[in-house]
Amino acid sequence: MSVEEKVQETCDACGCYAEIGTIIGEGDDVLDLEVSAASEADARAKLAEYRALAAQVSPESRIQEQLEQAEQGVILKARIQFSCTAEKLIFEMRARSLG
């Protein structure tokens, strides 16, 4: 189903509706992540947890990272490329336990 082909579904229980395709969008398989820490070693340790989780969800996931200095510590920006949108959503749900 492409993004243009949206179907409006209404929940019988609460009357809410969502357009299918806005929740799971085609081609939405890249996640931008920021890890803030006091030191580079702490930021890389935290990113290692996210990297391990991404590998569990999708062994083909690729991670690009960029380190930036902040006023108080460092910010490690990571971009995780999954093979499909569903893998990204699964990762996001599982990553809540890491946050």
Q: What can you see in these coordinates?
A:
This protein has 99 residues and is an alpha+beta fold. It is 29% helix and 34% strand. The protein has 2 helices and 5 strands. The protein has helices at 40-57, 85-95; strands at 7-10, 17-20, 30-37, 62-70, 73-81. The chain has a 3-stranded antiparallel β-sheet with strand order 3-5-4, covered by helices on one side. A two-stranded antiparallel sheet has the order 1-2. The model has no long low-confidence stretch (mean pLDDT 82).
Strand order of the largest sheet: 3-5-4
- Per DSSP, what share of the residues sits in E-state strands of 2 or more residues? 25-35%
- Give the low-pLDDT segments: none
The largest sheet, given as strand count, sense and whether it forms a barrel, is: 3 strands, antiparallel
Helicity range:
25-40%
Describe the structure in brief.
With 99 residues, this protein is α+β, with helices and mostly antiparallel strands. 29% of the residues lie in helices and 34% in strands. The protein has helices at residues 40-57, 85-95, and strands at 7-10, 17-20, 30-37, 62-70, 73-81.
Quickly list its features.
two-stranded antiparallel ribbon, 99 residues, globular, 3-stranded antiparallel beta sheet, alpha+beta, 2 helices
Compile the SSE list and pairings.
Elements: E1 7-10, E2 17-20, E3 30-37, H1 40-57, E4 62-70, E5 73-81, H2 85-95
Antiparallel strand pairs: 1-2, 3-5, 4-5
Helix pairs in contact: 1-2
